[in-house]
Amino acid sequence: MGNFCPYCSQKSGLGPITWRSVGKSIAEVWGMHNRSLLYSLAQLFLRPGYFIGDYISGKRQVSFPPVKMLAIVAVLGVIVDFLTGAIHGMVRLHNSERLSYIDDVFSWLNVHLNGAFPPPSNYLSDVFLWLNTHPDVLSLLLLSFLIIPNYYIFRFAPRNTLHTLPQGFFIQVFSSTVFMILNMIYDITSLGWFVLFFGAVMVFMTYKQLFGYGVWGTLWRAVMAFVCGCTLLSILLNTNYAVHLMREMQMPAAQRYFLNIPIALAFLVIILSICYYISKKTSR
After folding, report:
1. Which of 33, 56, 142, 221 lies at a 20 to 30 A Cα distance from 228?
2. pLDDT in tens, 234-253
3. Domain parsing of the chain, residue ranges
């Protein structure tokens, strides 16, 4: 019969199910049946840009499946959160009153920029407090908002030139995996500022290795990408707050906040256009 069944293509000689079969099945779920998961995680910290560049250029065998890797790391993150009781967030706060300034600043900006007079509320501070205590969600949100900015800002990079949006998706999947692990390190050590600094270094190293710009070229493009990502996040927050005001029957204020969205989009288009033009001109 050979090594495989001619009808179902199952490998021959598997034998009966034993405890070894159970252990092997569990190991396969967690990617521990071979070295690929641990090897991929090590590469993401030692040479992230080169490793990601190999994968998006077509060398699929160099990495453990990235989406599956992110899912496994996310589950591990939930377990670490449960075991450590890490609920204080990336920015440690002694009380939630410090976040009330977010509502005050946001209200002041809208009063002076577009004449919106929102009612007194702790809605935004509550949202930021929730995001602060759920850094994994915040990391995934912000990194997902980098796909489009990176597509335009690094479009004409010396390395991985003209990368596509699907490739950008996998770039951020790998980056999200790194930040999930950093969040776990913070849960265990509570070294928030160190983890944030190390995360910034990892982003810089990833972009420098992946796209091939020099130190300054990588730095300003990475900063602009995160500015655009934060702008997209602000659009989401404005939309969320405007819907909240509509539910509170504050229609005039809600309309003003909806007006922030095209303003933010215009700002985003201007930034991306300038970065795109500079990068294209430099590539020539």
Report:
1. 56
2. 888 888 878 877 877 777 77
3. 1-33, 35-283
